[in-house]
Structure formats: C-alpha cells, structure tokens
Amino acid sequence: MSFPKASLLLLLLLCGLSLAEVVSRIEIRGNRFVPDNLIRELLLTKEGGEFSLQRVRRDIRRLFRTGFFKKIEVHRFEEKEGVRLVYVVEDLPVIYRIEFEGNEELSDSDLAEKLGVETEVGKIDVDELITGYTSSPALEERLEIQRKLKLGRVLSQKEIDTLVKRIKEIYREEGYPDVKVTYRIVPKKGASKLVFHIDEGEEKYVVDIIFRGNRSFSSGKLEDLMETQDRNIFILRLKPPFSEEILREDVRKIRDFYKREGFLEVKIDYRVERRNGRHDIYIFIEEGPRYRLGEVRIEGNTLYAYRELVGNLLKKNERRGGYYRLEVVEALERNIRDLYAEIGFVNLLIDRKVEVDAEKKEVKLTLRVSEGKPVYIRKVKIEGNYETRDYVIRRELRVQEQELTVKRGLRRSRTRILNLGYYEDVQLQPFPAGRDSWDLLVRIRERFTGQFSVGLSYNEITKLSAFISLRKGNFLGTGDIVGVSISYGSQYKDNSISYTDKWFLDMPVDLTWSLFDRRIDYVSYTVERRGLNTTFSREFWEFWRWSVGTSFQRIDYSNISDTASSFIKRQEGRRESRKLILSLSRDTRDYFLFPTEGSQFKLSYTVALPVLGGTERFQRVTLTASKFLKDTYFDTGLVFSSKGTLGLVEPYGGADVPLDERFFVGGDFTIRGYRYGMAGVIDRNGDPIGAKKQLILNFELSYKLHKMFYIASFFDTGLGADRWEDFSPSNWRSGYGIGIRFITPLAPMRLDWAWKTKRVKGDTSPYRFHFVIGGFF
Question: How far is the C-alpha of 426 from the C-alpha of 409, rounded, in Å?
Fold first, then answer.
C-alpha cells in the first residue's frame, strides 16, 4: 500500500506545550493480525521518551515498509502525565488460501508449482510467521532454502506484486505475451484468500526472424542481441513466445549496437507478418557509413603524460580498422581512471566531448580530466563474515585506514582474500565518507569450508581405494586448517592427520605439522612410510615466501618381485630418513585455482642427514617456474599457461639415491599421455625406477566457457634420465591433447585425453586418459 494514501492525524494542542514533552503512553488499536509487541518494536517512539513529530513520521514510514499495513493513523492527546499517542492501524489480513481464475493453459497445480507457493494451509500460526520478519543471516538463508512460500500469515504487498509479476513471466514463457493478471483479497471467517484472475490472451509465437541489409554483422550475431527467439526444432524450441513490446526493445538494442560500433547514421525498422498466432519478423537495416575515430585529445592532465593515459588502446583500435567504437572510448576512460586510482585520485572526473564530422565521416574525441585531490581511507568495514573473525580478513588487506585509496592495493587485497579459499565471492567497495576520505566496505560471501567425504577414488598409481576424509578450513573462524584422512584399497593405504596454524604467534608465519602412515603396492615392490612432517614458512615483501621444514620417516620396502631389477632389490629392508627441506618461492598469480595472469617460481633444496638415526644420504634440488598470460591483443578470453621444471638428485657419502626420492617423469602431473614414470628411466622389465635428473616443459591454452568450467589444449615434453648427456632432443618424450577443467565444492578437477608421440617398452598404448583432483599448474 503506497504511503501517500495514509492519513496522519496529529491533534496539536499548542497551548501549554513545553520544550521537551514526554510520551506517557502508547496505545495500539485496530490490528487484527499483527501483534502489539511487533508494532511496538518497530516504533522509534518509546514510552517515557521525548516526543518528536519527526520521529512519529519516521514511525509511520517504518510501519509501511513492512508491507503489513493498509492504513496508519497517529492521534496525539495531552494528558497530565504527558503525551498519549494512539496508533490506529488497518493491517492486511492473513492469507490462508491462494486460488486462480481464468487459467486454461496451465492448471492450478502447475501454476502453484512454478510459483513455488502452497495453495492453502490448515493451521494459521500468525505470531510465528510475522515475527519471523526480522532480518538476520540465518533467517535469510533459511527462507532462501525453503522452496515454498508459506501461507497462514500476512503477505506483504511486495510479495503479492512479485507473484503477479512471476505469473506474467510464466505465461510469456508459455507463449502468451499479452497475459493480464489482477488479484483481489476475499475475507473469510477472520482470515482471507488471495484470488488471482488471469486473462491469458491469444497464444503467439515466432516462426522466423529475417534480417535485411546487414552487411557488416551476421544475422546470428544480431539475433544473439535479442530476447526474441525464432523456432529451432533441433533444441526443441518449437513455439518461442512473441511480444511486440519485447521486439521493440530488441530493435533498440540492435540500433544501439550499431551505433556503438561506429554506424552513427544507422536506420532500423521492422515488420511482423501474422497468421493464426504464427509470427514472422522482418528487420530492415540501413547501416549507412561507418565513422572512423579521428583526433583524440586529453585535457587537464598534469600527473600523467598523454602516452601513459592512452597506452596501446589507440594502436590496438587501428589494428581493428581504426573505426569509432564506444567500447574503445570506455576502455580509454577506464584506463585513465585506473592510472589515477593507483596514486589515490579516485574522485577523478572525466567529461567526454564527441564532435561528429559528417563530411569526413569521422569522430573527434576530447576527454577533459578533473584530477581532484587524493583520497584517504577513513574506516574499513567488513560484512558477511558470519564465521570468519575480522582479523583473518584484515591481515590480508593491502590498504589500511588513514592510507591512500590505491586501486592496486584494493585489487591485491581481493586476490589475497579469495586465495584463502574460504569465500565464494569478495567485493571491495569504497564509498565517500567525507571531502577527502572514503570508507571501504569489504563484503564477502562465505563458502562451506568443512568437508566430510566418504567414497571411492582411482588413479594410475594407487588404483581403486575407499576413503573417509574430514577437512575443515577456516577452523573456528581463525583461518587455520585441520584435516583427518583414512584411505584403504587393495594396493593403497593412507592415514593422516594434519594441522596448519595460520599467522603463528600473530606473525605472517604458517606452522604446519602432519602425522602419516602410507603404503603403496607397486608391480615390483611395496613401500610403506610412517612419520612426522613439520614446516615453518614466512611471507616477506609482498609476493615472496621462504620455508624451513623437517621430515622424520621410517620407510620399509618389501614384497620385492623375483623378476625385479637389481636396483629395486637393493631397496629391500628398513630405512630411516631425517630430512631438512628449504624453499624459496614467489607467487603473483591472480587466482590460485585457475590463474589467468601472473607467475609462480619455487626453488626447493632437500638434504637427508645421517643424524638421529638417519640412514639416507642425498641432496635434491628442484626448480619450477610458471607463467600465465591472458590474451589482451585480440581480447579472445584465451589464457596461455607455461611451466618449466628442472630437478637434480645426487647421493653423498657412498650411499645411493633412494628409489622414492628419484624423479618419476610421465603421468598426471608431468608428461601426459604416458603412464606414471614411463617418460624416464625404465628397467629391463619395463618398470619405471625413477631418474636422477629431470627436465619438463608444459604448455596449455585454456578458455573459460562458464564461471566454473574450462576447456583446454596442451603440449608436454621432457625427459627423466641419470646423465645430462642423455637429454638430446631425439630422446625426449612428448604428449599432447585436450581436456576440461571444472571447479567443485570439493576441489578443482581436470580430465585430459592425451596422445604420446613415442611409445616405450611397458607403455605401448597410443593415448591415455588422465583424471585428477587438483590443478596442473
């Protein structure tokens, strides 16, 4: 019910008014359904408080905003004790039943199902449902999950209007674009029913859309701009609905598209041929000349030079023909804003002036820049963190209170918060808070970080196994990670418990420990490991991190095959491993799951020491570097990823390199198309025994089809060998193929189909499927 229809009756007794009158009593009258306590809770005016006419007006607005009231009056009475206020309301009735009239195409049950509503309710529980209109995250989530709109309560005007709108949408989807929907509320025994009257109108559908005169853009391109669709029996679109109103909007979209592309004199008209509900649509286009982008001037800039502000945008537009395109103008303005935002000038104003030369068919563009003053962040507010504690988010921010509002810092802050892996979405929204200051709102949407999994898994190393896994990220809202996993299979066992303390001792330091018990049965032997790993890592500068780790393991080799090579037979027995692991890394990726730009570098050094009972003696060095490039030249959306891996392991003190510390090249994470280890050193039986040296190059081209779904093509090449002399190009192993990547609540997953370029002993299949939980780069 609209606010102007309410009457505000205030009987002002001017005589004897004091400067601060007290509200002695508040009475609520006329309410049949909405309880007194809820109305009183909504009022800003309270008994015993000071009377304010402005506050009473706000009370009326607050009550109307609930949608529960049709009429509100406020009466004021002077009494000895003070001012008595009487709120007289006419509340909307409780709706216990919904009915439909005039619907022939759709039944009552079909409409109710599509609307997601109940048609009637047996028991009316007004208090419970009305008082549920308080706003809280828990309630909003519950109402979102709840499928049906419950009756037996007051339906707000907004809810009724939404139902009317939805009924119209349903009929338009069914091919009745001229449907009309009205409603009435019918009182019955103290409650009411809501009746929708539907005038379905004539069924109308589109058979064909024909374009005439479009020389520069294909009909398919233009049709993609339209909401109106033609018939397509291949995708079972047999009767796409027709609406004259929507068609006129579609024609406007096409006209705007042409003008954005430089066709400033374009003329578009349409004709509809009708026969028995069938409609053929003809769209006539006179494109006219295409205007070129002429001189581009920027005025008022004192902090950046012209070349910095335009970047390569004008050259890029020249490569595309040099035409006037609105997207180029908008990109130019965006580039200017971004540059100024990097130094805190976020209040920058740009005045665009376009001069059209009809004779030369050219557009002259002038951008007048008003630089303003640098803006500082006054306060940082965080919303949406119902589980996460504030400090977990604040410590990832790269903009702080009383500092300049720098766009690079905002962008980096969002990336760091997203890469924690605890949030579905992160938005950083600065908004003015003063003349030279802004407040920063960090709005996050938390994801479910607890994972309890029971199921089966398979890969080429462990084969089929059953697992039970419990992992909780953001443990108790602190950002810490705890995990417990139990996996068993005919050839595999992996039991572990781990904990990561993020920001140990309130420093940018991660402390991780894990206890594990693992067993893998290979073709020629079985290896079992039990031990404790610890890692202490610290971030420094912005993108760098160093770490120090230790590993204490007991390793048992058993079930050695009689036909195994002598090298594998020498591994039999128990070993004690005491390792020190050092690493240095730099990571500028924009998104850890599927990066589109940035790079990653990691250098790792491991030494096995003969201390505390250790029996192994070796040194191992690995260097990995990745680069991610997004196509900004043609703006195709393609992402090119490359990775190089170099590894070296050598023994000392007369020992040998343990089998499981060698490099197994080939398989899911190295060179696809080959079985695990089959692109490296192989014994006489065709079994991989690992290499002392490895060199691997990986290249991938990916394209995002959906927010959570990617397609890719790839090429892997490299080799594992014991001597550098063996790394001649003729010995290299390569694989290529196609794949898909998708993000699930559990983890990112990928499926690759790869072909090898050279078959080897023990791996003669020309191709191989790879299914992996986790990323590649």
Answer: 14
Residues 340 and 423 in one domain: no
| Domain identity same for 592 and 703 | yes
Lowest mean pLDDT, pick from 41-55, 445-459, 576-590: 445-459
Residue 458 lies in a domain: no
Specify burial of residue 579 (Cβ count, 10 A radius: 0-12, 13-18, 19+): buried
**Which residues have C-beta within 8 Å of that of residue 266, sequence separation ≥ 6?**
255, 258, 259, 285, 286, 287, 288
Q: Cβ neighbours of residue 713 under 8 Å, at least 6 residues apart?
A: 700, 701, 736, 737, 738, 739
Split into its structural domains, the chain has a count of 6
Give CA–CA dist 385/394, Å, rounded. Answer: 12
Q: Are residues 116 and 192 in the same domain?
A: yes
Beta-bridge mates of residue 693: 648, 721
Q: Which residues 6+ apart lie within 8 Å of 727 measured at CB?
A: 693, 695, 719, 721
Q: Are residues 758 and 682 in the same domain?
A: yes
Q: Mean pLDDT over residues 511-530, rounded?
A: 90
Q: Which domain holds residue 322?
A: 292-370
Residues 592 and 713 grouped into a single domain: yes
**250 and 192 in a common domain:** no
The CATH number of the domain holding residue 658 is: 2.40.160.50
Q: Quickly list H helices, 572-653.
A: none
75-90, pLDDT tens digit by residue? Answer: 999 988 899 999 999 8
Give the type of residue at 761. K
Name the pTM for this structure: 0.62
Range name among 177-186, 393-402, 481-490 with the lowest pLDDT average: 481-490
The verdict on residue 460 lying in a domain is: no
Q: Which of 309, 336, 370 is the last residue of a domain?
A: 370
Closest of 250, 199, 200 to residue 225, by C-alpha: 250
Cα end-to-end distance, the chain, whole Å: 58
Q: Which of 325, 352, 370 is the last residue of a domain?
A: 370
Structural tokens at position 508: 């940018």
Q: Which two tokens stand for residue 648?
A: 């070296």
Residue 16 in tokens: 């004897």
DSSP 733-757: EEEEEEEEEEE-SS-EEEEEEEEES
For tokens 């003015």, name the residue: 432
Cα→Cα distances 202→178, 326, 328, 414, 432, Å: 7, 41, 45, 51, 52
* CA–CA distance, 771 with 748 (Å, rounded to integer): 11
The arithmetic mean of pLDDT across residues 716-739, rounded, is 94
**8 pLDDT band (50/70/90 cuts)?**
very low
519-557 in b/e form (b: 16+ CB < 10 A) is bbbbebbebbbebebebebebeeebebebebebbbebeb
Q: Does the residue 250 lie in any domain?
A: yes
- Same-domain status, 403 and 321: no
Residue 183 maps to a domain: yes
> Do 111 and 47 share a structural domain?
no
Beta bridge partners of 6: none
Q: How many CA atoms lie within 13 A of 441 on its CB side?
A: 9
Give the strand order in the sheet containing 423-432.
376-383, 437-446, 423-432
What CATH code is carried by the domain that includes residue 345?
3.10.20.310
Q: pLDDT tens-digit profile of 250-276?
A: 999 999 999 999 999 999 999 999 887
Q: For 563-611, how does the pLDDT look when each residue is reduced to its tens digit (9 = 90+)?
A: 888 888 888 899 999 999 999 999 999 888 789 999 999 999 999 999 9
Alpha-carbon distances of 452 from 121, 204, 486, rounded to whole Å: 38, 51, 11
Measured distance CA(280)–CA(207) in Å, rounded: 6
User: How far apart are the C-alpha atoms of 530 and 446, rounded to whole Å?
Assistant: 36
DSSP H helix total and E strand total for the chain: 14, 32
